[in-house]
Amino acid sequence: MQNKENTSALLAELKAARARIAELEAERDARIKVEEALRANEALLQAILRDLPFDFWARDTNQHVIMQSKESIRLWGDLSEVPVAETFAGFGTSDIWKATNRRVLSGEVVTGENEYAALNSELRTYHCIAAPIRDGDAILGVVGINLDITEHKKTEQALQDAHSFLNIVINSLPDPIFVEDEQHRHVLVNQALSEQLGIPVDLFLGKTVRDIMPPELAETKWADTELVLKTETVSTAEEKIVDAQGRIREILTRKVPYRGAGGEKLVIGVTTDVTDRNLADEALRASEDRYSTIVRTTAEGICILDQDSKITFINQAMADMLGFEIKEVVGLSASNFLFPGDMADFDERVRQRQFGQPLRYERRLRRKDGGELWTIASTTPLFSKDGEFLGSFGMLTDITARKQAEAELVRQKQMLLSIIESTSDAIFIKDAAGRYVLVNNVTASLFDLSKEEMLGCDDTAIFPPAQAEMLKRSDLAILEQDAPKTIEERLTTRDGDRIYLTTKGPLFDESGRKTGIFGIARDITEREQMAETLIQTEKMASVGGLAAGMAHEINNPLAGILQSAQVIAARLRPDNAANTRAAEICGCPMKGLQCYLENRDILTLLDGVRDAGKRASLIVANMLDFSKRHNADIYPINIIKVIEKSIELCQQDHNLAEKYNLKNISITRDYESNELTVPCSGNQVQQVILNLLRNAVHAMSEAETPAPSITLRARTDGENVLIEVEDNGPGMEERVRRRVFDPFFTTKAPSKGTGLGLSVSYFLVVNRHGGVLDVHSAPGKGTRFSVKLPLKPRYGKKASITEPSLR
After folding, report:
1. At 393, is the secondary structure helix, strand, or coil?
2. Are 377 and 338 in contact (CB under 8 A)?
3. Is the dihedral of CA 464, 470, 473, 478 positive or negative?
């Protein structure tokens, strides 16, 4: 009986033990599943952190790297086994990192911009954020990110705003958190809880809720903490607190038991005003929640696509950029937001990500209103632990305003270049060192250069030394003032010395610093010469009137001289009876008087007086005739007489300061006939011939031509009469020959010519007479001018040559 009872008891105990074992196995399986879920979440979070499209890293207090994103490893290499003191010693980067670590480990959040040179890379600028990893007041390490902002300096303000917002989110992200020990004393509280309740942190530490809160609120919290300590279970309860403003607020407090390595029991509490938030029961879950908040609230657009390119997540910033609500976008294919022309590129980017390649590129998207949204997309592929492609993570920055500004800048630049190239003025820009950085075609053509040949040159490579030095002084003076200035400059170009009215002014960059000068130059040589010519014309008009008056005044005494000389010659004639009687009365026989006159050459001298008087009279008559305003009507005229009269006038026009005048030059006449009649205006043709003769005399005088000579030819040539004036002087270069008939073009000094003589001659021959005026010349081979006048008049009466019309 006793054995039967013992057996029954053993069977009951065995059954109870089996039941207990089943319970323990169920608890074990549940714990294993929880642990696997937590490890999966931890792996997912680490995968997201590793795949962040920027440099993300975390270090412990010994300055060893405990986590790096793939972008960080790409930039700096795997630093997990290398203290910061041993990294990048040759680049100076480790010094920056060590200084940052010291500041952050002292509790400081460090933000700023630093220049780093990553592995096998150039020096680049990064926006750096480093913050302490806290466990209560204890700092466990340093966490930080480096955002490459080198390519975004032009949009720096927008990025700075985004980074400032991100800093604020990170620095203010933690919800109110506290830790209590087994005696209900607070061993850790964060700043958020201190600010929430308006109680300094140091007054929290070592105190219980009974010490710092009203009894009606403290007892409930005390009891809840006691329950967690005893049962070691998670507690979530709604509670009321009095905040810093004295308001009673409803909060959701989640308390989690924690057993330290030494066996001590702690309670970790997290409070929030959001009732539907699942608070983590460990540091990993809390960290995941913080980073989730960052992703959702950052100013950058964030989008996650699955393996079929369907949108599984976007943050509010991305939705705002597209102009949609979040719920309208999630579940749609990314192709809904692309323009047809961008689909091929999108498919290629997806293919590259499927092969594990992170990408950074510009992406154009279609907004809800159909407009363009330009972004810079930083995309990272997402893979499962088995290597299966799960989709893509993308961070997008709105650069629409920048793209629009760039397009407008290009449009304005093209318009400005069109204006610059269409103007007839020379336009140029120099840098602060005097080098040309922009010239238009007009500027380059002045020196027979291309624009490419001028760019990068300074004035010493283009102008004579004296002019280059003058321009350098002028440019320096412009750089010392703030306003443009207009000056006249005499410069040497391919067409010789020219006068330019130049407006110059300083150029400024966006910071107000002077970077160079601009210039607009207009050729005013003709204008200046026109002004001088008008002055000279006015002077010549006055001189002409004076000469005519003087000629009339000279004629009177000249007529008396000639008459007196004629009377004297008549009274010395021996065959005149009256002369003989007068000589005998005076006791001077006529025969003896004649002997004296012949012996002293008196009669010869008297003939010289009469000849000189006649020549003077002829000169005065020619001068009066030339100074008169002649009728420009066309009549049949012996052209040989016109040529000879032109020679005679030119012989009377000489300059004692010059070595030659026409009297010292050999004249060869080659006339077909001495009677060659042509319908023309004799005075106008005479002006042309006279101008050609004077030009030949001047050219040979300047060149000191040995044995100078001029050949004049006149003959019929078909239906024309051909007149040629040829010299054996220095000749002309081709560039001078091409422009010889241009108004105001001259190779003479300013005091010796206006550049109008040949242009007027061309006008008289071609426009007035319907003829041809041409020139044949080469350096060292003399010059021949050909004048063709039609034998049949082609025009009726013409206006006076004083009419100001020119070719």
Report:
1. strand
2. no
3. negative
What integer is the mean pLDDT of 52-80? 80
| Residue 397 contacts residue 301 (beta carbons within 8 Å) | yes
Rg of the chain (C-alpha set):
54
Tell me the torsion sign for CA atoms 104, 106, 109, 114.
Answer: negative
Residue 656 CB burial class (10 angstroms; 0-12, 13-18, ≥19):
exposed
- Please report the sign of the dihedral spanned by the C-alpha atoms of residue 51, residue 55, residue 61, residue 66: positive
Strand, helix or coil for residue 119 = coil
| Torsion, Cα of 590, 593, 599, 604 (10° steps) | -80
Per-residue pLDDT, averaged over 55-73, amounts to 81
Q: Point out the least confidently predicted range of 162-176, 356-370, 394-408.
A: 162-176
**pLDDT number for residue 801:** 33
Nearest to 443 by CA among 549, 521, 357: 521
Question: How high is the pLDDT of residue 544?
Answer: 55
Three-class DSSP category at 493: strand
pLDDT at residue 715, as a whole number? 94
Q: Is the CB of residue 217 less than 8 Å from the CB of residue 233?
A: no
- H or E element that contains 160: helix 156-172
Taking CA atoms, 619 is separated from 615, 625, 650, 694, 804, in Å, by 6, 10, 11, 17, 29
Q: Is 378 within 8 Å of 361 (Cβ atoms)? A: no
d(CA 378, CA 363): 10
Sign of the dihedral through C-alpha 22, 24, 25, 30: positive
- φ/ψ of 100, rounded to 5, equals -65, -45
Helix residue spans in 438-524 (DSSP H): 441-445, 451-454, 465-479
Rounded Cα distance, 731 and 775, in Å: 11
Residue 589: CB atoms within 10 Å: 12
* Rounded to 5°, angle at Cα 558 from 554 and 561: 150
Phi first, then psi: what are they for 452, rounded to 5°? -65, -35
What is the spatial distance between Cα 593 and Cα 237, in angstroms, rounded to a whole number?
Answer: 164
Q: Provide the residue count of the chain.
A: 807
| Residue 638: band (very low, low, confident or very high) from pLDDT cuts 50, 70, 90 | very high
| Residue type (1 letter), 33 | K
Rounded Cα–Cα distance for residues 763 and 771 (Å): 10
- Percent share of the chain, pLDDT over 90: 14
pLDDT in tens, 597-620: 778 878 777 777 777 776 666 666
CB atoms within 10 A of CB 751: 5
Q: What is the pLDDT of residue 311?
A: 93
The pLDDT mean for the chain works out to 79
Whole-number Å distance between alpha carbons of 49 and 67? 9
Q: What gap in Å lies between CA 517 and CA 447, rounded to an integer?
A: 20
Identity at 432, one-letter amino acid code: A
738-783 pLDDT, tens digit each: 777 776 666 665 445 545 667 778 888 888 888 999 999 888 889 9
**pLDDT digit string, tens, across residues 300-329:** 888 999 999 999 988 888 889 999 998 998
Which of 502, 548, 547 shows the shortest CA–CA distance to 524? 502
Asked if residues 768 and 803 have their Cβ atoms less than 8 Å apart, the reply is no
Q: How far apart are CA 482 and CA 465, in angstroms?
A: 28
Q: Check residue 572 and report its DSSP letter.
A: T
Q: How does strand 265-272 pair with strand 248-259?
A: antiparallel
Average pLDDT of the residues in 494-516: 86
> What 3-state class would DSSP assign to 371?
coil
What per-residue confidence (pLDDT) applies to 672?
92
Task: Please give the angle made by the CA atoms of 561, 562 and 565, to the nearest 5 degrees.
Answer: 85
What CA–CA distance (Å, rounded) separates 712 from 724? 6
